[in-house]
Structure formats: C-alpha cells, structure tokens
Amino acid sequence: MKQTLSHLHPNPGWNGFNREVAMGMGSPSLGVDDIIGKHCILELYGCDPIKLNDESFVRTSLTSASKVAGANLLNMITYKFDPQGVTGLALLAESHISIHTWPESRYAAIDVFTCGKKTMPEKACKLLTRDFASQSHTLKSFVRDTPFILNNQRRDP
C-alpha cells in the first residue's frame, strides 16, 4: 500500500496548538495545519559514562524514546567508537532521533525531530534525560512550518 503523509501523520495530538506560545512570539500565527512538526535539540551533561558508552543501552533508550514520543520506529543504526563513544540514529516514519555520546566528558548531544501533530518529542527528551542519568541539560525546541509553496500540494513520502 502506498502511504501518503496524511496516512502516516493523522495528527490528532496537536489540536489547539498555539504557535505564539510555543515560539514566544506575538505576531499572527500560521494555522495548526501549517505545522510540519517539532524539532528538539537536547544536550545532556553529567551523564553516567557507562551508559553513554554502552551501544546496547543506547539502542534500547532510542527505541523507548521513539515509543514515548508516539512515533513509529522504522530502522536503527548505531556505531560504537574505539576507545569510547556511541553514535545512533533512529529512523522514524515521522523523521528521526539521533544521539552522539562522549563518555569521557559525560556528555550527549541529541536531536529529536518529529513531523506531524500527534507526536510528542519533548516526552522523548524527558525519557532520554532520565535514561542517561543527566545531572543537567539544555533543551531548545522549535516548530517547523510548512513552506508556503507546499501548503496546497500533495506530498508523498
């Protein structure tokens, strides 16, 4: 069956989403239908270095983060560096979650981008912060808007 974006992303979860509140802006907003998705940039500090260096743990954590975000995991690839560090990418029907770890610095850089209105990337970020036992973190989140030229065009994945 050929899937269209509307099939992949029914988007019931962002009803009533207020772009001005999310973006800290007071200007006129685009409608809910103009939102492509949300993008979160998460940095974790003071993490458990053993977890950051455990490829299996990273895979399990990315899988759990995908589920809690309400996303559909399509594939995953991870790589363990020598002597340390792990990079992982969870390919989602709704976009991706990526992680790069530096166990020697107790640091992880994470990117969570989910398309659609039903997904909850902030929940994925909360889970990842907890999973890696982060002592502190920074989270930057922003909305991805539909480019005007695409508003009325059918889009197939």
Whole-number mean pLDDT: 81
Report how far apart the termini are: 12 Å
Looking across the biggest beta sheet, what order are the strands in?
Answer: 2-3-4-5-1-6
Strand segment count: 6
Task: Extract low-pLDDT stretches.
Answer: 1-30
Largest sheet: 6 strands, antiparallel
Order of helices and strands: HHEHHEEEEHE
Considering DSSP H and I runs of 4 or more, what fraction of the residues is helical? 10-25%
- Structural class by sheet pairing and helices: alpha+beta
Q: What is the CA-based Rg, rounded?
A: 17 Å
Overall outline: globular
Explain the overall architecture:
- By secondary structure, this protein is an alpha+beta fold.
- The chain has helices at 5-8, 19-23, 49-52, 55-68, 121-131, and strands spanning 35-45, 73-80, 86-92, 95-102, 107-115, 136-145.
- It has a six-stranded antiparallel beta sheet with strand order 2-3-4-5-1-6.
- Helix 4 packs antiparallel against helix 5.
- It is globular.
- Mean pLDDT is 81; it is low at 1-30.
